[in-house]
Structures are given as C-alpha cells and as structure tokens.
Design brief:
two-stranded parallel ribbon; alpha+beta; C8orf32 fold
Length: 233
C-alpha cells in the first residue's frame, strides 16, 4: 500500500474499510456517545480523549492476525498499542463524518519494560502509528497512544490535542530524561498497511514475532505489573 498524497480529496477518508470499520455498530455507538454535538474540531477533540484514556495502552497486546487490528476489535478489547489505537481514532472520526487517515514513523522509544526490550531486542519502534484528522482545511496529527494513568506512572507529560496543532510525542519526560526520538517518516495511508508492517516486524523483531507466532508469549505478559517493576528500579 502506498502513502497518500497531501492534496488528495478528503472524501475517501470518510469511507469505512476492513481495518477502519467506521460502519460497525459499536464504532458508530462510541462515536455518538463521545463526540458531542459541536463542530468538527470540537468533536474530534472529544473523540481523541475518549480513545486516549478510554482504551488502555498495552504494547504486549500485539497480534499477528489482521482481524485483531480492526477498530471494532480494538474497541471490544479495551486496550491496544499505538497502531490499533490510531486505527480506532480514525474509525470513530470517520463515523462522525470527520475525514481521518493513518500516519506512521519509526521512533526510538525510551518508555519500555525489561520484557519488551528483551523481546524486541531494540529501542526502536518501527511503524509507530498515529492518526491525522482533517480539521479547518488542513491535516492535523493526533497521537492517542499513552493513556493518562500510564503517563502519570512514568512521569510523562500526557499528549494533549486541541485540533489545531500536531499532537506528537514529547522529546523529554517531566524529569528531563530522553523520552522519544522520531527517526523516520513512513508517510500517511487511507487504511492500515498491514502487510508492510508485518514485513518490517519480521525483519527487525524476529524474536518477538517468533514468540507471537508460537504462543503469543509477549501478549501473555502483564504490562501493568511490568510497568510497576520498571518504575520501582
């Protein structure tokens, strides 16, 4: 799947797709319940916070089956990592009549756990996902990955979103420690480039992918418990 061009018409980014299944009843209901009744900007902001804090961030919940990345599946699970949460935000925006698409970048992420570092064998998160939303005539980036409770535990500044400025990861945490470095922009897409993501993961995360294909060992880990151990170090 190829990235989209910046000047493409926005209408295709309102359509439901296999991954961004904006027409799913649960997605439609979530959008109605959380978007409010204001203009597009106001509703997009409400939806951002509903996804950011209502769906827990869990990088252990990595799936290898396409169905696990569908927005409706993420909503049903109540948790996910950056890519599924970005898919969900795009879906609820489209369900509300707000154009949205998916963006990806490679980042060096210093928020991790010992289990995750051992499994990934790197601090680089390839194909980190975010959502871009078309508001007031321009595309604005929104990153709903880290829920507020997790940020509070790790001493991070939660990513806020006002609909007018890009919401991307902070370079440093509240204590001034290195948090996130953007390394490579992979472009923006009308739907999830699942095959591309899996190919890159197999190349860069062979141990993690072997675990997931064998017995979802990583997903079986307790993210919250590992977070508590990490911050106690």
């Amino acid at each position: 799947m190829q990235p989209t061009a910046e000047l493409e018409p926005v209408e295709p980014f309102l359509e439901s797709s296999f991954y961004i299944d904006a027409d799913a009843p649960a997605i439609q209901r979530f959008a109605r319940d959380h978007a409010g009744t204001g203009d597009d900007l106001s509703r997009a902001v409400w939806l951002y916070y509903a996804v950011r804090d209502g769906i827990r961030y869990n990088p252990y919940a990595v799936g290898v089956e396409p169905a696990s990345f569908r927005a409706s599946a993420v909503l049903a699970a109540g948790e996910g990592w950056c890519v599924p949460k970005a898919v969900l935000l795009a879906a609820v925006c489209r369900a509300s009549g707000i154009p949205a698409r998916l963006g990806f970048a490679d980042v060096r992420n210093h928020l991790s756990t010992e289990r995750l570092r051992e499994s990934m064998e790197t601090e680089i998160f390839y194909f980190h996902g975010y959502t871009t939303i078309f508001l007031e005539g321009r595309w604005v980036k929104a990153t709903p990955a880290f829920n507020r409770a997790l940020c509070d535990k790790f001493g991070l500044r939660p990513l806020e979103f006002n609909g007018r400025e890009d919401s991307i990861y902070h370079e440093f945490d509240q204590a001034g420690n290195r948090h996130m470095e953007y390394l490579n922009d992979r472009g923006e897409y009308p739907d999830l480039p699942f095959d591309d993501i899996m190919a890159v993961f197999r190349e860069h995360y062979p141990r993690m992918m072997a675990q997931l294909n064998a017995a979802p060992a990583l997903a079986a880990g307790d993210w919250q418990a590992d977070v508590e151990r990490e911050i106690a170090r």
